[in-house]
Write a structure and sequence with these properties.
single chain; alpha+beta; Hypothetical Cytosolic Protein, Chain: A; two-stranded antiparallel sheet; 3 helices; 5 strands; binds zinc ion
Length: about 80
């Protein structure tokens, strides 16, 4: 049996690779609103993306984040994500 890890692993919706919380940005949907969750603790359906322009771009173009959250991610969120 593998050792149990204490650090939670999250999967990026763009590249499908796992990363630690430090590497990923959490986005959260509550109701119909989608927002960046800098605390990682906001209630609601969450999805994770690497803090890399490639992953952000990929998620935006292919709609992976929309699918993960089952909501349309507004432009204002993409603006927040773009460094
Ligand atoms: Zn990624």
């Amino acid at each position: 049996m593998p050792k149990r890890r204490h650090e939670p692993r999250r999967t990026c919706v763009a590249c499908r690779q796992e990363g630690s919380k430090d590497e990923l940005i959490r986005l959260v949907r509550s109701g119909e609103a989608v927002a960046v969750d800098p605390t990682g603790r906001a209630p609601g359906r969450g999805a994770y993306l690497h803090r890399r322009p490639e992953c952000i771009e990929e998620a935006r173009k292919k709609g992976g984040l929309n699918r993960a959250l089952k909501a349309q991610v507004p432009d204002s969120v993409w603006v927040d994500l773009t460094p």
